[in-house]
Amino acid sequence: MLQITPQMRILVALEAVDGRKGIDSLARLCQEKLEADPFSGCLFFFRSRRGTAIRILVYDGQGFWLAQKRLSKGRFRWWPEGRNTREVARSLAAHLGVGFVSLTEALDLTTPAGRAMAALLAVFAEFAREILRERVRAGLAHARQNGQRLGRPATAGLHADKIRKLYRAGTSKSEIARRLRIGRTSVRRILQERWGG
């Protein structure tokens, strides 16, 4: 029997996982994505891509338990999501009334000092992002001044004459794309530019 105690850590995978994954695959995900030991006794929660099932993986000292709840109708309405720790913490607090404590970063968002520290970290992260954005803009402006062409190279456009010639010879659009190693959409676009359809 699976016993859950108040001291158990609960780790939630924010990204959905393939519902066909078994114990070994989920244990590997715990190590690679959640950076946690699957043998630690923590509860690991996973959600299916369609949001119709939740899986719980836990090691009880003798072996792994894998429990699954699949809805016969509908989907699970809420799952924590966010691009950073602060968004996830807000999401958890708003929906479940729980606080966030990071054991690896010594960050406790249930206390005023922890929330202040998280706010400071967010300010520094935003500052670093703005500096990076400034440098990228300056680099692009410098490249334009030196006459460099920016953006993706016009690979398909270079083959426009060959595409039209092959198409007039009766070659299918798929075969043209295969021969010239470009996308079928590019072939269609170039042919539409010439004949409007």
Description:
With 197 residues, the chain is α+β, with helices and mostly antiparallel strands. Among the domains are: 10-79, no CATH class; 157-195, Arc Repressor Mutant, subunit A, CATH 1.10.10. It has helices at residues 23-32, 85-96, 112-145, 160-168, 173-180, 184-195, and strands at 10-12, 43-47, 53-59, 64-70, 101-102, 107-108. A 4-stranded mixed beta sheet has the order 1-2-3-4, with helices on one face. A two-stranded antiparallel sheet has the order 5-6. The protein starts with 9 loop residues before the first strand and ends with a helix. 11% of the residues are buried.
Summarize the structure.
The chain has helices spanning 23-32, 85-96, 112-145, 160-168, 173-180, 184-195, and strands at 10-12, 43-47, 53-59, 64-70, 101-102, 107-108. With 197 residues, the protein is an alpha+beta fold. Among the domains are: 10-79, no CATH class; 157-195, Orthogonal Bundle (Arc Repressor Mutant, subunit A).
Overall structural class, as computed from helix and strand content, comes to alpha+beta
Q: What spatial order of strands do you see in the largest sheet?
A: 1-2-3-4
Low-confidence stretches: none
Mean pLDDT: 80
* Strand portion: 5-15%
Overall form:
flat
In percent, how helical is the residue content?
40-55%
In whole angstroms, how far apart are the ends? 65 Å
